[in-house]
């Protein structure tokens, strides 16, 4: 009811408004929405809801980015993502160790791996809204969006490295498991699976639209269904579902099948 007023007058976008509204409706204030009241499996339910929220957010970022943006800017993104994530990972773990000295440093690294990625939903507060369109250059907004989407999925290797170093008896076994499972099975297989499913779905939707089997509104809505479908498939096999959702729309160039910027914006609003 007040989102347009907040966005146009005080430059506050939906992310901040949604967070504030969620706090008000949560168990510590109004008590209307309380995940802890969902029963004995409330943690698992909350986890899966957040998985869908993140995956659809990454999917929407992939739609908004230009065609093959990740491939064209791979070098700059790698320079931006990997060093900053690694440095932030170590620094946050050191802070955790100072605050909780009873924890081992490996345990702090495991916790830090969950805190290191840039949340793509929160990133929307920087790259979205009237203020961002007016004062933040388009190339910087695209770079921040791509970085937040990619590093959310790339947190898996940081987490699995600490887990295998903790669980395996030797460092050699830990590194083997980290490369085979943490990188190849979770990250690489997730990206490949998402890209293949996205490419297949893109051709199917273009065929259906050419034959008149589906209208334009349903055509746009199907992209949301695809993000949920890919998340379910890839998470079931144990690979990186977040990167898969992002790869599904970015790598095959599915964005080209949305012919206008208005349709991209419509998808963003829908998600």
UniProtKB/TrEMBL annotation:
Q: Which UniProt keywords apply?
A: Antiport, Ion transport, Membrane, Sodium, Sodium transport, Transmembrane, Transmembrane helix, Transport
Q: Which InterPro entries match?
A: Cation/H_exchanger_TM, Na+/H+_antiporter_fungi
Q: Outline the extent of the Cation/H+ exchanger transmembrane domain.
A: 5-248
List this protein's GO terms for biological process: intracellular potassium ion homeostasis; proton export across plasma membrane; regulation of membrane potential; sodium ion export across plasma membrane
Membrane topology label = Multi-pass membrane protein
Question: Organism source for this protein?
Answer: Psilocybe cubensis
- Per its record, how is this protein called by name? Cation/H+ exchanger transmembrane domain-containing protein
Transmembrane parts of this sequence: 12-33, 45-65, 77-96, 102-128, 149-167, 179-199, 220-237
Its cellular-component GO annotations read: plasma membrane
Where found in the cell?
Membrane
Q: Which family does it belong to?
A: Belongs to the fungal Na(+)/H(+) exchanger family.
Q: Name one GO molecular function term.
A: sodium:proton antiporter activity
């Amino acid at each position: 009811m007040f989102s347009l007023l907040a966005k146009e007058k005080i430059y506050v976008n939906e992310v901040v408004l949604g967070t504030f509204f969620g706090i008000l409706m949560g168990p510590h204030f109004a008590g209307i929405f309380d995940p802890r009241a969902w029963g004995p499996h409330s943690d698992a339910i909350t986890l899966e809801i957040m998985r869908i929220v993140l995956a659809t957010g990454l999917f929407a970022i992939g739609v908004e980015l230009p065609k093959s943006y990740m491939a064209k800017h791979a070098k700059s993104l790698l320079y931006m993502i990997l060093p900053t994530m690694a440095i932030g990972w170590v620094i946050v773990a050191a802070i955790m160790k100072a605050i909780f000295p009873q924890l081992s440093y490996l345990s702090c690294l495991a916790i830090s791996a969950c805190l290191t990625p840039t949340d793509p939903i929160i990133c929307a507060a920087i790259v979205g809204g009237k203020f961002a369109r007016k004062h933040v250059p388009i190339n910087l907004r695209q770079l921040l969006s791509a970085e937040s989407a990619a590093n959310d999925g790339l947190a898996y290797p940081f987490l699995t490295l600490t887990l295998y170093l903790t669980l395996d008896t030797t460092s050699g076994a830990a590194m083997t498991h980290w490369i085979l499972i943490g990188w190849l099975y979770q990250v690489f297989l997730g990206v490949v699976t998402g890209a293949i499913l996205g490419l297949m779905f893109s051709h199917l939707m273009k065929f259906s639209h050419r034959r008149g089997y589906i209208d334009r509104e349903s055509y746009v809505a199907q992209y949301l269904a695809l993000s949920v479908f890919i998340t379910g498939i890839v998470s079931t096999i144990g690979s990186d579902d977040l990167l898969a959702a992002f790869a599904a729309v970015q790598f095959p160039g599915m964005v080209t099948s949305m012919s206008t910027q208005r349709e991209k914006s419509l998808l963003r609003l829908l998600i």
